Amino acid sequence: MQYRHLGKSGLRVSILSLGGWVTYGGQVGDDAAFECMKAAYDAGINFFDNAEVYAGGESEKSMGRAIKHFGWKRSSLVISTKIYWGGAGSNDKGLSRKHIIEGTKASLERLDLDYVDLIFAHRPDNLTPMHEIVRAFNWVIEKGYAFYWGTSEWSAEQISDAHRVADSLGLIGPLMEQPQYNMLHRERFEVEYAPLYAKYGLGTTIWSPLASGVLTGKYNSGVVPEDSRFGYKKDAVVQRIREASLDSEEGKAKLKKVVALEPIAKKLDCTLAQLALAWCLANKNVSTVITGASRAEQVKENVKALAVLPKLTPEVLAEIEKILDNKPESKPDRY
To answer: So what's the pLDDT on residue 138?
Structure first.
């Protein structure tokens, strides 16, 4: 396993990590979750990602039980959670000081941990003043409930605003952003955030590196396997992503690109999934790639992407770019 610093911090995270999402506590039970987490830990993965909303809080519980079951040394783990959607109550969602603090405490209880290493604002909250959000996350850090705070799917302008507010208050701004990034979804990561990597030392914990499975090739035939992520019909978010990724004209065009990538994967002696993961890792601004898995074998296969990374020469990357044909144009630094 390789490790990178998370942004400008001294914290080192494995370049591949494992996330819970709807999988643990939802799509699969504890036995499968435990096997996946152990396979990841044994491979050198130290970062495990979660959120209060995943599987209605059951994902945090499952991950917490695994940590306790294996008796892993807490200092060997980097655990994260995300706060925004905590329930149906009027103050159980958003980024008010009340929900950030109460949501954090509830997440820690579900995880059965004294603290998380990273805590994220799961989405921006335009109805809560930025100074309230910054103060609340700093309070969480000061109390020892988390070590670092960051954002997920915030705009570059919102991240910059949080830093300006933090600086004016003598507080800590967001260290990391958790955006979607993959071969088929690039604009925000490569263009919008570009000025922030140097300006704030922004770290990134990217999600959906396989575009919810599209880049594995499993959907190339047009049939959705029942045991796949898009086959999980209990989650409305998953189904919305499925419609956009597979059923739309844009989705069908993306599938054609995935088919065209198959010869490159074959030439590099790897799977499409391993190629897609290695492609993400080749970007120096990626701190860690969050993967998902419902079986231990998937974890082991994903880790093999590390062997593909050195094969991504400039020539191979250029060949991939020709197929993707979606490299975004750079824009002036506005932040």
So the answer is: 98
